[in-house]
Amino acid sequence: MEAVRAENLHKTYGHGDTEVKALRGVSMVAHAGEVVALLGPSGSGKSTLLTALGLLNPPERGTVTLMGERVIDEGRAQGDLAALRRARIGFVFQKSNLIPFLTAHENVRLALALNDREGPETHARAQELLDYLGVGKRGAHFPEELSGGEQQRVAIARALAPAPQLILADEPTAALDSHRGRAVMELFRQVAREQGTAVVVVTHDHRTLDVFDTIYEMEDGLLSRSAQTA
Amino acid sequence: MNLAILDLRRQKARFAATALGLGLLFAIVLAMGGIYRGLVEDATLLVDHMGADLWVVQRDTRGPFAERSTVPPELEDRLRSVAGVASARSFSTATIQRVHGARNLRMTVVGLSWPEDKGGALPLVAGRPLRDPHRELIADRSLGLPLGEVLALGDDTFTVVGLTQGMLSSGGDGVVFATELDARAILNWMAPEARRLEREGRLARLAATDLDSRVLEDRLKDERSVLPVLDPAPANAVLVRLRPGASLAEVERTLAGWPDVTVYSAQAQRDLLLKGVVEKSRKQIGLFRALLSLVSGIVVALILYNMTVAKTHDIALLKLMGARVSVVVKLVLNQGLLLGGLGYGFAVFLAQVAFPLFPRRVVLGAGEYIGVGVLVLVLVTVASLAGIVRALRIPPTLILAG
Q1: What is the distance between the alpha carbons of residues B105 and B231, in angstroms, rounded to a whole number?
Q2: What is the pLDDT of residue B271?
Q3: How many domains does chain A divide into?
């Protein structure tokens, strides 16, 4: 089943001499349980595509469909994009971007609280996710007390908490060494397989491409499907 | 999940110090109101306590508190003969400053109408009312005079036989009560040297005239004779009480026809005090209070704005995660309310502990506490708007910028 489909996305920044066409008719699809890589040099439009898929920065033209529901139609939002983000999309970044004044456990619960889920079951769900990602014993610690790898695992746990259909990751291993970077990428594949979530990862790390089911390459705002590894 | 409280958990000391600072500001706002109420209560205390229906003063004056007033000695008897008047008594008051021991003692002397009024109705907290028509005083505790203390006032010494609590004049000075005659003697006392100089001056002026008045000269030289200018001054006012059922307006109308007096009801006397003696202080305090409220509002707004700026990244993340606007607004507003609440709590604590130590009375009632509480609530809410506007303008994509 298609988790996300983007069709003919166009996005332009600036005007006149400073005009940059970040997306020039980009189309792509990611299925439930699939891990997709977005490769490309800096400025190629990867992050713009990611923000368009994440409903943060709607394109001027084109459509985005989430689990069969058209949420952006010819650049216009169809409904409450913030509500769609908090319920259906998880984000993971280069830096873990955990809330510094919340413990690891609270950071995971935050994603549930934003979806109006409070109470003992959310505590259990947060602990279950932390255990699943191998940081169950670090729940009471604040982000600054965790290693980079642990922080990234907590961030993935937070992204998974509301059981999203899509996880978008922007260079999630850039701040990690190769060993930990690979571990995180393999974790994404595990999550995709076991949770049925589509995972789209922007990465520069060619050493981990074997983890991905589909690889797209972007250049000058154009997307091409380069290979299928699985 | 209350993000506002969870955030503060990590910066307790900083937050407490900020709340403490705000509390001091709010305490001053609270004190301003209390000082004003204290002024009003002090100003009207004597008028209220004397319990007169009418205050009869010198014609065209606003005495005895607002300005000097002297009434003729026979006025008391004239007033007693007016239909509807139950009692009339002379009243004298003035503020004096004397050296007592090693300190300057500033006090307001008030005469009691002996023998009808011995001070039994005063709020005595120690000692007793007057028993002797002379040389006894009832003093307010604020003067720091213990029971049995002997004061030299004029040509006599007076013993403190009773202590009151909270009996202050409109100037905030402690009141001492003596019999009316003693009060007048104290208030109009002239030093022996001044008396001697006055006699000599008069003799010199007499010698400079072509009058050859042996009788007048003898009178001037005689220590026992009374010089008109050195006479005990007349009373400042006469206080009138009406018979039950007597018409206040009717008696006022009667007295209005008398050429040498002006008459005020007790309420009119209160109004005179409030509009005359207290009015400027009230305006001054009111303006100062408004200014302080404005400063508090600006300080709170800056604090909340800076707290929001410090959370820019976290707010961007929350918005990226799809947080509702209400979540972001609550984060800022709840911290503002907490800050205001803690500051207000500290201000109330200060009011309870420190205000009684102030040199002038700070009178705070429930209305004042509620009023300032509401002011703090409004200030904090309005001040939070700056932070909220800032928070709502933070783009979620800020996170992607690294």
Answers
A1: 25
A2: 86
A3: 1
